[in-house]
Design goal:
Blueprint: E1 15-17, E2 33-35, E3 44-45, E4 61-62, E5 67-69, E6 76-81, E7 131-132, E8 139-143, E9 146-151, E10 157-163, E11 166-167, E12 184-189, H1 202-205, E13 210-214, E14 217-221, E15 230-239, E16 244-253, E17 257-268, E18 272-276, E19 281-282, E20 288-291, E21 294-298, E22 312-314, E23 320-325, E24 328-333, E25 349-353, E26 357-363, E27 367-369, E28 374-385, H2 397-406
Antiparallel strand pairs: 1-28, 2-16, 3-4, 5-6, 7-8, 8-9, 9-10, 10-11, 12-17, 13-14, 14-15, 15-16, 16-28, 17-26, 17-27, 18-21, 18-23, 19-22, 20-21, 22-25, 23-24, 24-28, 25-26
Length: about 400
């Protein structure tokens, strides 16, 4: 059984919608995107609401929102098209992230791109149609050598993100009795707000989610976690042209609550985790180094343990984090959350060494959600083969540069 742990998440600015449904913490509604090619812009916006948003002024769209193609797979826009939740599955070619995020309950239905695009237009969107695998009951997006699977029966968690047959997501341990050793999950942060510190709230983490495939999207909804009065909706989509897989997490509150999005991805041990250094880093049980503005944790020895549940907690910066293992790079990109907007006792980037897995955690802004309101958050994931010319070691400038290039930075 796990003991309480500190975690941090990185998010894009959240969408707060009126009328829609220090030790450690776990996370809240998030939107995530996975990609093999270039990374699309991320967006979170806040609709007009009586609730306050810690990440910015109410009613305004926040960082991100541009996308080169419609979520439904339509024609590409010339400099960042419309989006339904701030982050579309279709990314821009080489253009920067726009600043106008779409709000699901705000004043606009689509964000405009005010970033300085370096390209003349984005690549046409090519939405992937998900299917259900009969033998496992999991829902799958498959394109090229990439397979992405979600298990709706177990918390709608990500079960597979593989390239060429190599899965970057930890699989279930034979000794796991409560589904706490595998998959990519989403919670609300801080952890101290849960009814108990561990295990995570079953309604959000491991109970079956309702819903299913809807056109080019997979939309799944949790039951209500009564202790906080919250539920979570997850919207997954993928674009084969850009390689991005997009997940939109929405936290819906039946009662007024303060929370932050918290994404926890469990990965196999033995790799190299790194992210841009911020203003603070508490290493916890890990041996970490900083080089050229990057915080590194080399898990090649697989010796780090945490009997007390302690973990590394960092402010982080730059809006991305990465994990290199077996010749592949698992990259996540999100809007950076400043230290002042992070949940109490939490950080944007956190790492916990489990038995046979690492938890790589990202948290978004700590936000007040009114009763009947909601908070949405977007994050993008990408998986790519690491070139043989890149040195995979802590402090490697070629690896850091490759990650930035993949993130479109």
């Amino acid at each position: 059984m796990h003991v309480a742990r500190c975690t941090e998440s990185v998010f894009s600015p959240a969408v707060l919608v009126k009328g829609k449904g220090a030790v450690m913490t776990r996370h809240l509604g998030v939107v995530a995107a996975f990609a093999v090619c270039s990374l699309a812009g991320f967006a979170c916006s806040q609709a007009s609401s009586t609730g306050s948003h810690s990440g910015g002024a109410g009613g305004s769209a926040q960082a991100g929102g541009g996308q080169s193609g419609q979520d439904t797979g339509g024609a590409a826009a010339s400099a960042g098209g419309s989006g339904t939740g701030g982050l579309g599955a279709g990314g821009k070619g080489t253009g920067d992230t726009g600043l106008g995020g779409a709000s699901t309950g705000g004043t606009g239905s689509g964000g405009t791109n005010s970033g300085d695009a370096t390209g003349t237009g984005g690549a046409a969107s090519s939405a992937v149609v998900p299917t259900t695998v009969a033998s496992s009951g999991r829902d799958r997006f498959a394109f090229g050598d990439v397979v992405f699977e979600v298990d709706p029966k177990v918390g709608a968690r990500v079960a597979t993100l593989s390239l060429g047959g190599t899965n970057m997501i930890a699989t279930m341990s034979t000794t796991d009795t409560n589904n706490t050793t595998w998959g990519g999950v989403f919670w609300t942060s801080p952890q101290k707000a849960w009814a108990s510190f561990w295990p995570p709230p079953a309604a959000l983490d491991s109970d079956p989610y309702a819903g299913g495939i809807s056109g080019n999207h997979l939309v799944l909804d949790s039951g209500t976690y009564a202790a906080l009065g919250v539920s979570v909706s997850k919207d997954f989509s993928a674009d084969s042209a850009t390689g991005w897989i997009t997940i939109s997490y929405t936290i819906k509150a039946s009662t007024a609550v303060q929370a932050a999005p918290w994404e926890d991805c469990r990965v196999p041990r033995g790799g190299l985790a790194f992210f841009p250094a911020g203003s603070s880093l508490s290493k916890g049980p890990l041996t970490m180094t900083e080089s050229a503005g990057i915080d590194w944790f080399d898990d090649a020895a697989k010796t780090a343990t945490s009997p007390t549940g302690a973990k590394a907690i960092a402010d982080g910066s730059g809006g991305w984090s990465a994990y290199a293992l077996g010749g592949n790079l698992f990259l996540r990109k999100f809007t950076n959350t400043p230290a002042s907007a992070q949940a109490p006792g939490e950080g944007q980037d956190e790492i916990y060494p489990g038995s046979g897995f690492l938890e790589l955690e990202v948290q978004g802004p700590y936000t007040s959600i009114p009763a009947g309101g909601s908070l949405s958050w977007t994050i993008a994931w990408r998986i790519a083969k690491i070139p043989t010319s890149v040195t995979v070691s802590a402090g490697s400038t070629t690896l850091a540069d490759f990650a930035k290039q993949q993130a479109g930075l």
